[in-house]
């Protein structure tokens, strides 16, 4: 029995790698994507809205199949892991950009004007005034999105990535007891999500204390 549990648990390696990898890429790439949303030109803002709507409007599983099977028809071969990372990263980018946009909208425009009146440069304004407030505003939503990526990563088993779900399925085929196998996998997902939530709360509290933001 211990061998079975160990086999399933080892699938967490890909689960964690894909979750953290796609989250990191999404957190970074969402910044230039957000720049489109804040453009002075309506056409550019429209492009942003279209990208976000399309990415968020199509189920993750469909995007995964389009990436893995569809791209192959164009003569580009992707491994299951590469296709999974690419898919989850694109989805993470769209969701993170919307989270950032919501955070920016929550900050009063007058703070930019006040910073300018005090001769703060744009970089200094972002670092010392806007940044801490934005971080505090978006950190809970970012953590929630990362947990969402963790759960969505279970779909990669459908294209052959040997994650938790894939390995639980293999053990179910060999030994039955599907309730136990997938229940154990579900427990690992739960244990993986808890540190993300706790870390987010810790960072949120720390930034609040540091900058004394009410």
Automatic annotation (TrEMBL):
The protein, known as: ABC transmembrane type-1 domain-containing protein
SUPFAM superfamilies (UniProt xref): MetI-like (SSF161098)
InterPro entries the record matches: AA_ABC_transptr_permease_3TM (IPR010065), ArtM/GltK/GlnP/TcyL/YhdX-like (IPR043429), MetI-like (IPR000515), MetI-like_sf (IPR035906)
Keywords: Amino-acid transport, Cell membrane, Membrane, Transmembrane, Transmembrane helix, Transport
A Gene Ontology molecular function term of the record: transmembrane transporter activity
Coiled coil: none
Species in which this protein is naturally found: Microbacterium mangrovi
Ranges of residues in domain ABC transmembrane type-1: 12-200
NCBIfam families from the UniProt entry: HEQRo_perm_3TM (TIGR01726)
UniProt keyword annotation of Phosphoprotein present: no
Gene3D superfamilies in the record: MetI-like (1.10.3720.10)
BP GO annotations: amino acid transport
Topological relation to the membrane, as annotated: Multi-pass membrane protein
């Amino acid at each position: 029995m211990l061998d079975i549990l160990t086999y399933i648990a080892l699938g967490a390696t890909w689960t964690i790698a894909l979750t953290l990898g796609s989250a990191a890429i999404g957190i970074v790439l969402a910044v230039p994507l957000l720049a489109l949303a804040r453009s002075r030109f309506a056409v550019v803002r429209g492009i942003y809205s279209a990208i976000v709507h399309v990415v968020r409007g199509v189920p993750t599983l469909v995007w995964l199949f389009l990436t893995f099977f569809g791209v192959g028809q164009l003569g580009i071969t992707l491994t299951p892991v590469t296709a999974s990372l690419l898919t989850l990263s694109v989805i993470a980018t769209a969701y993170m950009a919307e989270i950032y946009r919501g955070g920016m909208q929550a900050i009063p425009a007058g703070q930019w004007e006040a910073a300018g009146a005090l001769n703060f440069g744009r970089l200094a304004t972002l670092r010392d005034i806007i940044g801490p407030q934005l971080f505090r505003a978006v950190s809970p939503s970012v953590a929630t999105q990362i947990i969402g990526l963790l759960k969505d990563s279970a779909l990669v088993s459908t294209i052959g990535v040997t994650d938790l779900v894939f390995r639980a399925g293999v053990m179910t085929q060999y030994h039955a007891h599907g309730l136990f196998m997938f229940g154990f996998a579900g427990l690992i997902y739960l244990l993986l999500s808890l540190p993300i939530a706790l870390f987010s709360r810790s960072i949120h509290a720390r930034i609040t204390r540091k900058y004394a933001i009410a």
